[in-house]
Amino acid sequence: MTVAENGTDLARLAARRVTLIYRLDLIAKGAQLSYEDGTLVDMASEQTRLEDEVARLDRLIEALERLAD
């Protein structure tokens, strides 16, 4: 992986992480999502899924940053 690719990947992953944290904040404030058919999304499961994804991204970002050093 080139330095430019690594930087692009880091920026993309960091942006994705920010989006997920924003969604977690909305959930904490009581947001409720629904599917197209009107069925409510299980927000506890969604929160857990997003937290797991943020943790995964944190590990991936850390690994890419180590490669950049």
UniProtKB/TrEMBL annotation:
Domain of life: Bacteria
Protein name: Uncharacterized protein
Organism: Brevundimonas basaltis
